[in-house]
Design brief:
Elements lengths: L7 H5 L7 E6 L13 H16 L4 E3 L22 H17 L4 E6 L5 H14 L4 E6 H4 L1 H6 L13 H10 L19 E2 L2 E2 L4 H4 L13 H24 L5
Parallel strand pairs: 1-2, 1-3, 3-4
Antiparallel strand pairs: 5-6
Helix pairs in contact: 2-7, 2-9, 3-4, 7-9
Length: 248
């Protein structure tokens, strides 16, 4: 079920303890010289849509949130962002009306790395307000990390930025938006930690062109394989959220 396509009476009639609301969250930001700024929205939204089709009787999908926490991309331009406090509060405000209406299962499905820390803070805040609700959230790659890693040929066996993974996914989902003339090795990626210490470096400090890894190794075939596998894994996670006992 899609929230935006349901009438108010239909929503009110849903079983409040047996329905999972899923909010995909993404970003609108530069993705190097070869991918569109809406890459995260397209990938996360497509995954969420495919998962909803498998759980259309028990899952309500909210429209994908395109605004993310993307300040670390601003020096490259072509980026929209919310500051951290605003973004955390936005995530909370999306969930609160649903939880106040009595629905008790809520998930944030994340498609942008910069959203991960705010997502966790928002869920912590919501848990204090709604201790009887089952709240969850994660980037889709945290749910399907092993599958993604096994399908990448470059040294970066993880989801980076406009990388082999994201480029393969857009080649599969929206091939007409990929600028093939700009595909090349992104070069060395600057570290975001030293000896386990987090470094809050922005993308300009870490990359030369705003992308990472080996987008030149991307293929639509890899994208199709990974998309199908991610949908499988996220579907399992959704079912686990539907099966999990609610807090007392």
């Amino acid at each position: 079920m899609k929230f935006a396509e349901l009438t108010a009476p239909r929503l009110r009639a849903l079983p409040k303890e047996e329905t999972l609301f899923v909010q995909p969250i993404a970003a609108l930001e530069q993705h190097g010289p070869h991918l569109p700024t809406g890459t995260d929205v397209m990938i996360c939204g497509a995954i969420a849509d495919a998962v909803e089709q498998r759980h259309s009787d028990s899952m309500v999908l909210l429209p994908t949130l395109w605004l993310g926490a993307s300040a670390h991309h601003l020096r490259f331009g072509a980026t929209a962002t919310a500051d951290l406090d605003t973004y955390i509060e936005t995530l909370c405000e999306i969930a609160r009306p649903l939880l106040r209406d009595g629905y008790r299962r809520f998930m944030l499905l994340n498609g942008h790395g910069g959203n991960t820390d705010p997502l966790r803070v928002a869920l912590r805040q919501l848990q204090q307000e709604f201790p009887n609700a089952l709240l969850s959230g994660a980037p889709y790659w945290a749910v399907a990390g092993a599958l993604i890693s096994s399908n990448l040929d470059g040294a970066h066996k993880f989801v980076g930025h406009a990388c082999e993974f994201e480029t393969s996914m857009i080649m599969h989902l929206r091939p007409e938006l990929v600028n093939h003339d700009e595909l090349r090795d992104a070069g060395k990626l600057g570290a975001d930690d030293i000896e386990g210490l987090f470094l809050p470096r922005d993308m300009k400090d870490r990359t030369r062109e705003g992308c990472t890894g080996r987008p030149d190794l991307a293929t639509a075939e890899k994208g199709a394989t990974m998309f199908a596998g991610i949908v499988d894994r996220v579907s399992v996670a959704v079912q686990a959220m539907l099966d999990e006992p609610l807090p007392n």
